[in-house]
Amino acid sequence: MFHHVKELQFNARVSRPDPRFATLLLEQFGGANGELKAAMQYFVQAFSARQPYPDKYDLLMDIATEEFSHLEIVGATITMLLTGVNGELKDAAEQSDLMRLLKGKSEREQLIEEAATGPQFLVLSGGGPAVTNSQGVPWSGSYVNANGELSVDLRSDIAAEARAKIVYEYLMQFTDDPFVKESLAFLMTREVAHMQMFTAALESIKPNFPPGVLQGDPRYTHTYFNMSNGRSSRGPWNQGQGPWGPGESWEFIADPVQEVMQTQGNTQLPIKGTNQKPEEVARFNKQQSQLRSQEVNQAIAKQQNPWSFSGKP
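That's the Manganese catalase family protein sequence above. Prediction below.
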């Protein structure tokens, strides 16, 4: 159940109209890393988390709802940045006020040229926000990543918040309006907070790596293939203990071609870098399968399965 409160989560303001920056800000309204994408992604992900992880369902729905409030802030800011423009567009008899707003003919021509890259903005939307990015490309459901495996979804969410944070950081370089910068700083900071929330939620799921149920084949989990010629870079991603505990390490394959030839296309590759045996992996896979299945089924009543826990079913 949603309830709209008319006050914005943050009191968005602008100092003056700025049609060009309004166009740029569309990126966070209907772009691939914008607020609508985030809201829909967390909203969709929440459904499959409802029964196995009701606490994470609550988290995802809360953040999804907050993202809708951020969409409202962005939309309100775009509208305020177009103050004067959206009204003058409807004045078919007198265009001089619009020209004065845009500081003359050259300014108006430049705005028209910029609008041509995203014709839905101004021309089709009448001066309000459109569900497109800054180039006029319509928002798409393909932006939404919802895998149904919570450890995968949370990693996608951390990355989504990181990308949105960087977009706000870039946007702040294209405006000198202190009020707009204040709003963008609030929105950017909430992306940082959400990253921390999703990271904490992921850490609360044990185990969460590798994602899913099945473990990796120990013949290949600790192997690094040197797939380029010339000087090789070494680091904790291909040498030493890496992310594992004592007694485990990376196995660096300096010549992958020779390795493939000697192991019949890696089908006869011996286990190196780990003491884990195939039978141990199979046993753990079975345990994980039972655990994940139990997490889903334990919340399902035998006779009824109400979505809401409170109130009458």
